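During the reporting period the student researcher (J.K.) took over the structure-prediction task from the postdoctoral fellow and processed the backlog of single-chain submissions. One of the processed entries is reproduced below for the supervisory committee.
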Amino acid sequence: MQESLVEYGSRRVIITITCIICALLEIVDTTIVNVALTDMKGNLGATVTEIGWVVTAYAIGNVIVVPMTSWLSQQFGRRNYFAASIILFTICSFLCGNANGIWELVAFRFLQGVGGGALLVTTQTIITESYPPEKRSMAQAIYGLGVIIGPTLGPPLGGYIVDHASWHWIFYINIPIGVIATLLTIHYIRSPKYGEKSAAKDVDWLGIALLATFVGSLQYVLEKGQDDDWFSSKTILVLAIIAFFGFFFFIWRELTYKNPIVELRVLKNTNLRVGTMLSFLMGFGLYGSTFIIPLYTQSTLGWTAQQAGMLMIPSAITTAFMMPIIGNILQKGAKQQYLVALGLLLFSVFTIWGYCILTPDTPSGAFFWMLIVRGMGMGMLFIPVTSLSLSTLQGKQIGQGAAFTGMMRQLGGSFGIALITTFMARQNQVHYTNLAAHLDKNNFYVQQTVNNMQRGYIAKGMTPDIALQSTYATLSHMVSKQASVLSYMDVFLYLGVLFLIFIPFVLITRSSKRKVDLAEAMH
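J.K. obtained the following structure tokens:
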């Protein structure tokens, strides 16, 4: 029989605080860089699509390591693996802060993601096992709150740091926290006594390699395809083929190997299949919206990083407020399908609202209620989606299903940001071309505008030819800004439509009278 890992008194409090700090370190770091992307872009001389890799490389590192976490814990002992993950995360935070080039930063962000991926999964297991069964729901509620609002707390914290120091300190602040967390982990956290370690030959190394190949290749194709004119680029073509075959052989390997790194057979369950798609969609919406809103407010409206970050706080508070309410409603027997459908509808309202209010000079007050609706939608999605996914599973399938939905949420965020940046780059070109086509030099109003602007520049002391050049440059900038706004509007509109499309799929899932422990639902 496995020894009890239940802790008591101050020791349990310290373990809980350590775990929550580690979980928050991992989650906040997913989005804290969003408001610093503009500063990084200028400082490192990167393009919009290149800077997107700072976010996506971290998510890829997470996605690759999450399925391996259970095996690595058994091989090296949970405490040792957990401490090593914190150390890797902390060292890479220092290296990210010291990076001098965009691809150097991306490489360290990937390694930071590898270290961080273990933190989220392992902290939940440690907290669950440290509390007696009757007190676990309280611990999971505290932990769950951090998991849910963490992605939204990143931007305001990042904004404050960027405005009062520099983007490098977004990474440096992790170092003292990481050192303290490592010391507390080594001193207080215990490892369960596992059975025999898996032999190296039993590990699904090929599955791990195929997963990394598929995710990495597809991510590159999505990120760089637009810049390199898609399949006219030999690199894009080769990597697209590698991604396709990587995916094909990954599926084949996981369905035929006796100890697969990702248990795909559990997807025979209809609820889990729908829940997996919803988790992907949720990651897409959560990370996609926390990526584009700060980008829009800074690059188009000229806000500071702190202003852009503070904008997200009402949404985070609303989500935190909704969480216990939704948990309570679920425990009283409410159907997960209806809560998820309502959450999807609210998120669609948020995105379509965004589509309606975006302009080249939208006032800050216009965002408040829109973001409150976003917070409500997200609060109604997290626990119900995972609970719905797991509601008809039994035994060890619950853990497999929970790991799968967690991985898909990260993948959704990673691919979502890649797709959004690529889509925006394409739409920007389309809108710019369409708007510029309407500036006919033979049109009376266009001529009048050009003449008035030219006279204004001449009045400032410019020669007529320089004044005309400045006029055309100003017009080009105005058209470019408007094209950019239209691209953001397109993203909001299509996101809203995508969430609406999924509502019927949610409503056809089966109900189960079995209540899923919130500890499992938070995975």
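The committee noted the following: DSSP finds 21 helices and no strands in the chain.
J.K. will present the remaining backlog at the next meeting.
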